[in-house]
């Protein structure tokens, strides 16, 4: 009975398949024309186009095989992801092997024929912002409601939580409260969305912030600005406005496409031969997603150019410096040093580090900033570890003898320092360790020669751990997370988290991971001969893990799975949701009052 049914599905499918081959270019014609003129298209037009993309079961299963090979060999949280979430975090355990194998069967039997979202979902469940699949055809659409939602805490009687609505298109809606979304209570709708659909934090409060504004970054405002095809063509909001009666608005999605990928969309997304070609990855090396030159983070290419800003708060009694650091880039080290020196010259006695909306970046920057602000003895970064396959051992030995500390290779011991001594590795086997368990070969990041030179030529600052406070909206990811966690765990710098869910503790950082790379790079580094990597679905994954450590250098749990709520909490209101400097004043109060 079951087999018969399967066959009939296959038959139906095959007919559709022929149709869709002819149709894809037709269905996408309007989309293509609009995008070329940097215009937008209607939701239904975009949906038809996306659904017409050709499917090929062999290609789909190859994608899964490649993803499973990469993840099972190099993903540092492959086993840990199967465990229950630690208290404070909110996510479900994920058995990647089981999920991907089941997906593979569905593709093979053509029970499922829409590759793009299907492959992405099991990875999104990990709530590890470093690990995901991006399809070059599918994931560059932008779905925009053209409005921003804020969550503020009103000051009335019981401090009841409310959504405040800010409409970019129609300013008369500003400060209306959103009571319902699609007929359901607004707040719960956002919480559910953050819970199920946002992948970039294990902390639900942080995901809640990411669903909403304020935002400078690509991962914020995700409820109204999406990268995956929404289920419906519009969203209905019930509003309750201060100077007006209740009203309902229905907002259609405006669909556009990321500029720099339009060439790809036009040239091969509708063509099955192009999509299944496994050799075209070279064509996309120029898209700048992942480069091999440095251990940098992919987010670098996505970020706004706002780099750093320094302010002085002066109430006549005590001067407090504010440093906004929203990215971690090597080429910012001079500017950062200059900024802090300026604050010192202007007499800042204390320091607020506003690290909100920081998507991370260069993994040696945390080390640089720690050394710059809090001159400390080694080790001055968290220890890390990586998975070593048998066939990688000989590569490590070769790298030890041939590669210098500037010559980046993930598996070059010369690029790191041994833990806990902070000395260079004496030989390859010291780096490799016993391999009996993951933590047998811990090592530290090393400062780059440029950073070292700059530090050698900078006189130290007088700020102590007690003079500094870190402020974030929870979206302080990757390298930013490693930095703030190191300040907090090892140097006992206090932290403030803004927003999130009322009366629920919240993390000040998210997905510290250790290091991200792509499947093709990790295999090249490791000396893995696995071929058939379909790079149209670019897999990015965490390949190094950082460990929590206390002030005495005692190694604790994996950082990614350690719940670290902030010491203090602030909430958004109508004013500070739009003007972050009001949050600095609150932070200065906390900084000046604390023991
Ligand atoms: C929300 O709007 C819909 C449509 O106008 C209306 O039927 C519903 O009663 C509204 N809900 C509330 C709580 O006002
Ligand atoms: C009140 O709502 C109506 C209908 O939604 C709208 O046309 C009008 O501009 C609003 N007035 C104010 C003062 O917000
Ligand atoms: C995709 O296929 C079309 C038509 O066969 C061809 O002209 C184009 O060069 C191909 N593009 C790539 C990137 O392979
Ligand atoms: C790797 O090498 C060790 C020691 O030689 C051996 O015990 C182990 O089975 C090998 N692992 C694999 C997956 O081949
Ligand atoms: C990969 O291929 C090379 C060249 O054929 C071979 O020397 C090496 O042993 C292979 N490595 C593995 C892990 O199979
Ligand atoms: C590697 O260095 C360690 C630490 O100095 C030393 O104990 C070990 O004997 C060395 N191993 C080899 C193979 O040289
Ligand atoms: C920085 O100073 C240290 C200690 O004085 C020295 O060992 C190191 O070589 C210097 N580095 C650079 C790049 O000048
Ligand atoms: C140290 O910094 C000063 C001021 O920025 C600069 O003039 C000097 O050349 C630097 N010295 C070295 C050795 O880099
Ligand atoms: C670190 O070591 C000191 C001195 O041995 C001890 O007093 C302190 O409790 C230790 N701290 C932690 C967090 O273990």
TrEMBL record:
Lineage, uppermost ranks: Eukaryota, Fungi, Fungi incertae sedis, Mucoromycota, Glomeromycotina
Record-given protein name: Uncharacterized protein
Keyword tags: Signal
Gene3D superfamilies according to UniProt: 2-enoyl-CoA Hydratase, Chain A, domain 1 (3.90.226.10)
Signal peptide: 1-24
């Amino acid at each position: 009975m079951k087999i018969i049914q399967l066959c009939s599905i296959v038959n139906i499918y095959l007919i559709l398949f022929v149709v869709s081959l002819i149709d894809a270019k037709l269905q996408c014609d309007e989309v293509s024309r609009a995008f070329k003129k940097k215009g937008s298209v209607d939701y239904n037009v975009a949906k038809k186009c996306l659904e017409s993309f050709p499917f090929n079961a062999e290609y789909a299963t190859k994608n899964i095989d490649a993803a499973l090979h990469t993840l099972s060999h190099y993903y540092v949280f492959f086993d840990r992801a199967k465990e229950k979430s630690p208290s404070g975090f909110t996510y479900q355990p994920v058995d990647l092997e089981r999920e991907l194998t089941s997906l593979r069967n569905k593709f093979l039997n053509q029970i499922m024929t829409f590759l793009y979202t299907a492959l992405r979902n099991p990875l999104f469940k990990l709530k590890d912002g470093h690990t995901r699949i991006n399809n070059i055809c599918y994931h560059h659409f932008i779905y925009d409601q053209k409005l921003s939602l804020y969550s503020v805490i009103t000051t009335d009687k019981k401090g009841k939580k409310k959504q405040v609505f800010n409409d970019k298109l129609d300013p008369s809606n500003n400060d209306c409260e959103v009571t319902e979304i699609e007929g359901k209570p607004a707040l719960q709708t956002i919480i559910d969305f953050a819970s199920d659909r946002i992948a970039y934090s294990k902390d639900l409060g942080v995901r809640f912030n990411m669903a909403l504004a304020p935002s400078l970054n690509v991962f914020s405002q995700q409820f109204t600005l999406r990268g995956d095809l929404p289920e419906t063509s519009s969203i209905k909001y019930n509003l309750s406005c201060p100077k007006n009666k209740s009203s309902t608005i229905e907002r259609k999605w405006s669909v556009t496409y990321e500029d720099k990928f339009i060439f790809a969309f036009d040239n091969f997304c509708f063509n099955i031969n192009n999509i299944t070609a496994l050799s075209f990855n070279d064509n996309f090396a120029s898209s700048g997603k992942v480069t091999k030159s440095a251990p940098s983070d992919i987010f670098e290419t996505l970020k706004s150019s706002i780099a750093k800003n320094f302010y002085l708060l002066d109430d006549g009694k005590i001067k407090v410096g504010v440093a906004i650091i929203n990215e971690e880039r090597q080429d910012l080290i001079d500017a950062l040093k200059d900024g802090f020196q300026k604050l010192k010259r202007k007499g800042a006695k204390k320091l607020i580090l506003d690290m909100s909306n920081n998507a991370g970046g260069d993994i040696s920057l945390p080390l640089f900033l720690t050394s710059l602000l809090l001159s400390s003895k080694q080790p001055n970064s968290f220890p890390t570890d990586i998975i070593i396959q048998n066939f990688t051992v000989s590569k490590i030995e070769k790298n030890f003898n041939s590669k210098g500390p500037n010559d980046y290779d993930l598996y070059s011991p010369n690029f790191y320092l041994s833990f806990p001594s902070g000395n260079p590795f004496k030989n390859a086997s010291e780096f490799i360790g016993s391999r009996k368990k993951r933590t047998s070969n811990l090592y530290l990041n090393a400062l780059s020669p440029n950073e070292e030179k700059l530090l050698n030529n900078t006189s130290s600052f007088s700020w102590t751990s007690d003079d500094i406070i870190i402020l974030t909206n929870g979206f302080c990811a990757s390298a930013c997370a490693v930095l703030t966690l190191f300040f907090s765990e090892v140097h006992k710098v206090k932290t403030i988290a803004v927003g999130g869910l009322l009366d629920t503790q919240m993390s000040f950082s998210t997905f510290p991971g250790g290091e991200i790379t792509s499947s093709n790079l990790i295999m090249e580094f490791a000396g893995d001969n696995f071929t058939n990597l379909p790079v149209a679905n670019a897999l990015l994954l965490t390949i190094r893990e950082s460990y929590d450590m206390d002030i005495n250098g005692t190694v604790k749990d994996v950082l990614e799975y350690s719940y670290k709520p902030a010491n203090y909490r602030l909430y958004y209101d109508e004013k500070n949701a739009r003007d972050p400097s009001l949050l600095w004043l609150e932070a200065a109060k906390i900084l000046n009052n604390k023991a």
